[in-house]
TrEMBL record:
It is a multi-pass membrane protein. One of its GO terms (molecular function) is protein-disulfide reductase activity. It comes from Acidisphaera rubrifaciens HS-AP3. Pfam families: DsbB. Keywords: Membrane, Signal, Transmembrane, Transmembrane helix. Its main location: membrane. This is Disulfide bond formation protein B.
Length: 170
């Protein structure tokens, strides 16, 4: 397997791991994701699709697709940084879904305005690693940053030259 195809496979596995961790925390950990958490899953979905495309393409085309995956993961880093900043109170959430609803009117109006499913506020950190003071948003930020660095290393690695006639490289 070529190095770029191996990088594409690792890209797929890395994106799957991130999505599996998020869904398992939601399903088996019974954690309710906030709107920013749901938004942070999109770069991994995009990278998963791009990794699958890169896996089936030849060398240079696969590298170009992995450059797009790198750009998508940079978006994931930015989303993670925004979420950590919201949790730390450095700035308000850019999403209106994270704000408390403005309820007014009768009780019937208030009940009709309530969401069908409970929502988690974006500024409440969730800690799952016991004594480690890193929230899930901070862990996602670190993972997205490491994943971006991996993709950067994969796409900037020199392309090996082919051997021609068994005598050196062309």
């Amino acid at each position: 397997m070529t190095p770029i195809r191996s990088a594409a496979l690792l890209t797929v596995l890395g994106a799957l791991a991130a999505l599996a961790a998020a869904f398992s925390a939601e399903w088996w950990g019974h954690l309710v994701p906030c709107p920013l958490c749901l938004l942070e899953r999109w770069p991994y979905r995009i990278v998963l699709a791009l990794g699958l495309i890169a896996f089936v393409l030849p060398g240079r085309a696969a590298r170009a697709v992995l450059v797009l995956a790198f750009a998508a993961m940079l978006g994931g880093v930015m989303l993670g940084a925004v979420h950590v900043g919201v949790e730390q109170g450095w700035w308000p959430s850019p999403l209106p879904e994270c704000a408390a609803p403005h309820l007014s009117g009768s009780i019937a109006d208030r009940l009709a305005a309530m969401p069908l499913r409970p929502e988690m506020p974006c500024d409440t950190p969730v800690y799952v690693l016991g004594p480690v003071p890193l929230s899930l948003a901070a862990l996602d930020l670190l993972y997205a940053l490491a994943f971006s660095l991996f993709l950067l290393a994969a796409v900037t690695r020199p392309i090996p030259r082919r051997r021609i006639g068994g005598k050196g490289y062309a």
